[in-house]
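Quick question: what would this complex look like in 3D?
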Amino acid sequence: MRMKGKVLLSALLVAGFSAMAGESAAAAPPAINSGDTAWLLISTAMVMLMTPGLAFFYGGLVRRKNVLSVLMQCFMLLCLMSVQWVLVGYSLAFGPDIGGIIGNLSWLGLTGVGQEAHSVYANTTPHLAFMIFQSMFAVITPALIIGAFAERIKFLPFCIFSLLWATIVYDPLAHWVWGDKGFLGTLGGMGALDFAGGAVVHINAGMAALAAALILGKRVGYPDKTSPPHSLPFAMLGAALLWFGWFGFNAGSACAANGLAASAFVMTNTAAAVAGLAWALMDLIFNRKATVLGIITGAVAGLVAITPAAGFVNPMGALAIGLGAGVICYFSVSFVKVKFGYDDSLDAFGVHGVGGIWGAIATGLFATKTINPGGADGLFYGNPMQFIIQLKAVAITIVFSFVASYLLFKLVDITMGLRVDTDEEKIGLDLTEHREAGYTMLE
Amino acid sequence: MEEVLQNLEDKEIHLVTVTSVMGRGRQKGVSTVYRSHKEAGTLLKKIKLEIAVNDDYVKVAIDAIVDGGRTGQIGDGKIFILDLHECMRIRTGETGNIAIG
């Protein structure tokens, strides 16, 4: 405790000193701002909570016999990806650039990632704070894919796939968009805007989800004989935790406790709310009843779509993006999936893939420098070029993510076998993969 | 359900076993909608009562249940009346009428 007090005190002194020194001290290492650091660390904890939240969201939607398998997959990724990130992931994604494609290996095991600020990433907070904030994104992104292969995947191949996918798909894409000199992003790249992960997280996970659904095939009995969600109260709890955590996800991506963070916070809430409303309305129109599953799915779709835009759009933009997300994702889940007949069990592609694509494109429409001078104007603010850039970035993300994920799934499928036996699938993964039961009958 | 139990109580029939079950009769199941996917729903939630009584109380119990449970619509349910071969109270070892209570 005494040590901590000392460190904090000296950090404050440094902050005070450089503030007095003013503009002339531009060359000095950037000062740590305690407010920014506190907000980034709190945001990290909030984003961490999203993965268990997602577990309950997905867990509630599967059948009783598979609830633990989904909770386990999410929790396993929290452990697995946290370790991968510290050992190699962060270095690949954010380490010193190689040709705009990937980070080099000089930050393996967090070598050189310390308590001082980095000159580019979140430069008023300790480099370690930015690193751990980013780690939670690396955790939840592969967890989103679970929605596509839930109820029929073997556990060990799932772990191997996730590890490979994080290293070969997520880390490079994160570098392209957010890494210093990554070729897609705004730090010396082509200038695609992605505030908190529309492309890196949601399109990426969504395309991998589509690949998974295509390779694994349908669940036994789909679509007519798969029972309904076993616990919508769980799903609602999970969705609410996701919404809560998303404030850290989006507002935390400002990497500072400032006006931009507040703006992103407001846009996030607005888009989620209007998307939930839109879905409920669509349900009323097409199914004559507003449903719980509908409104929470809509809210999540809105959160997905506002993710790339949160720090670049104004409230009207957020409303439009949320509304679009509710309507577009509704159609993708209710009609497109049915028409093409793939079994994306929990709609990971339909909500995250489609919502992410809409959000990334809409950022090119609604972005405005009046909200974020560091961003860009979109089509509706007189800059069609940004719209083109967003389209290009979306196309590149879709192709790379789908192809790479498809090949990885195939590789694991050929070498280990991805899918459980039909008998095991009928018995349920809780028992066959984990030798546990989510619910007991007696006591 | 509350009315049926109250009626039975009023007639001094206190010993009842209640089970939550799934089943279907003439009214079939109820369909539900999840993300626009309609589940046909072949079963309905029902409640099953098991009541063991002595002969004098059979008519009383039936009246109590019908009085409390009838709405006149399909789905009110059925009463099955079965003979009990034997009964034994585990605590005391008593058998027959006295064990039924």
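Answer marked as accepted. The domain at 33-434 of chain A is CATH 1.10.3430.10 (Ammonium transporter fold).
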